[in-house]
Write a structure and sequence with these properties.
about 80 residues
Length: about 80
């Protein structure tokens, strides 16, 4: 794998975790779901996502966003594992 591909994958993994934090996702529950399959599928969707520019803008807001990131392909999955 080329160095730039590794760097891109690392940035997107960090972005996915930032998104989960913003959406108050229970990471442990997500990782345990279906023996890790849900988490693995979410990572793949994030790595192949074409809306990373929207994601970065949404995450970089100075105030916590009130609107859901409807552009996120993992939004429904993250909503399932939202902490109470």
């Amino acid at each position: 794998m080329q160095w730039w591909m590794t760097r891109r994958a690392e940035r997107q993994a960090t972005r996915m975790h930032d998104m989960m934090d913003q959406l108050n996702v229970d990471r442990a529950a997500l990782v345990r779901s279906r023996q890790g399959q849900d988490y693995a599928e979410a990572r793949t969707r994030c790595l192949t996502c074409g809306t990373s520019d929207k994601c970065l803008r949404w995450l970089d807001r100075q105030t916590p966003p009130d609107d859901a990131p409807t552009f996120c392909p993992n939004l429904r999955l993250f909503a399932r594992f939202r902490k109470p």
